[in-house]
Amino acid sequence: MSVTGVGSLSLPHSALADTVLERLTAEYGAAADPARAAPMRAYMKDVAPFLGLTAPVRRTLSRTVLAGTPRPDERDCTAVALRCWRLPEREYQYFAVDLLRRHARVLSSGFLPVARHLVSTVPWWDTVDLLAAHVVGALVEADPALKTDMDVWIGDDDLWIARTALLHQLRSKDRTDTERLFAYCVRQSGHPDFFIRKAIGWALREYAKTDPEAVREFLAREKGRFAPLSVREALKNIGA
Questions:
Q1: What are phi and psi of 183, to 5 degrees?
Q2: What are phi and psi of 192, to 5 degrees?
Q3: Which among 104, 134, 199 is positioned nearest to 160, based on CA atoms?
Q4: Are the C-beta atoms of 37 and 51 separated by less than 8 Å?
Q5: pLDDT tens across 157-193, in order?
Q6: Tens digits of residue pLDDT in 6-64
Q7: Cβ(143)–Cβ(109) under 8 Å?
Q8: How far apart are CA 167 and CA 169, in angstroms?
C-alpha cells in the first residue's frame, strides 16, 4: 500500500479521498461567511479558524460533496479524516467526524491509533466528544480487546484522551461495562480540570438512564471523592 506520512501515522492513498477533498474544499470554500466565522471562532475559544458555515448549511453542502460517491472503506475514511485534520478551518474536521460516525461499522480495531490522533490534534469538546461516543465507543464495542487500550487512555496526561476514555461508553446503555465506568470515574475523581470533572458527571448521568440505582449506590459510596460539579451532573435527572 502506497502511503505518505502524517506524523507517526500513515496517510493511505485513496482515489475517493482525492475526489471528496476536491469537492469539499470547493463547496465549503465558496459558501464561507466571514461575518459568521469570527463569532464562531470566539465561541470555540479560538481553537481554530472557521469558515462561518452554520450546521444546516454545512449538512446541505456535505450531501452535495458526497453525492454519487461509493461507500468508503477504512482506507478511504482514514485518508479523508487525516486530510481534513490538516486543513485549518474547523468545518472540515466536522465533515470528517460526520463521515466517521456514519461509517463507523467499516472501521476495524486498527483505526484506534487514527482516532487517538484525531482526538489529540486540535482538541476541543466539539470534535472530541463525538469521536469518543460514536467512533471510539463503536470500535471498543466491536472489539472488546480494545478495553485494555481504554485502561491506558484513562490515565493519559492528555486530558482529551482521558475524557475520551470516560465518554466512550455514552451510547452503550445496558451493554455498559459498569465496573470500568465506575473505576474510570474514581481514577480521575481528583482531576482539577473542568472538562474531566464534567465528563465524569456526564458519563454517570447517561448510565443513570439505564440503571439509576447503580449510580445512586456508587455515589453514596464514593461521593466524597468527586467534585461538586461531577455529582450535580450525575444526579441531575435522578436526584440523590
A1: -65, -40
A2: -80, -15
A3: 199
A4: yes
A5: 999 999 999 999 999 999 999 999 999 999 999 999 9
A6: 556 889 999 999 999 999 999 999 999 999 999 999 999 999 999 999 999 999 999 99
A7: yes
A8: 5
**Cell 468508503, residue located:** 72
- Contacts by 29-36 with C-beta closer than 8 Å and gap 24+? 31/57, 31/61
Q: Are 33 and 52 in contact (CB under 8 A)?
A: yes
> Which pTM value belongs to this model?
0.95
CA gap 67, 25 in Å, rounded: 15
Burial degree of 131 (CB within 10 A; 0-12, 13-18, 19+): buried
Whole-number Cα distances in Å, 159 to 2, 98, 144, 197, 202: 34, 23, 23, 11, 15
Q: Within its chain, how far is the Cα of 82 from the centroid?
A: 14
Place of cell 454517570: 204
